[in-house]
Please model this.
Amino acid sequence: MSGIYYKVKCKCGNEQRIFSHASAVVKCEKCNEPLAHPTGGKAIIHGEIIEELG
Model:
């Protein structure tokens, strides 16, 4: 499985990297808001995708 990383911005303003095929719920490091949920494939991203990091 290949994937890419996204720079995602949370509604609190924090930005962090998330793998496109995350296998676990990814939460914001600052406010603990869920940013991504796994689906068995490409994750559902809840934050704003700012940049693809390759």
Q: What stands out?
A: The chain has one domain: 5-52. The chain is about 0% helix and 45% strand.
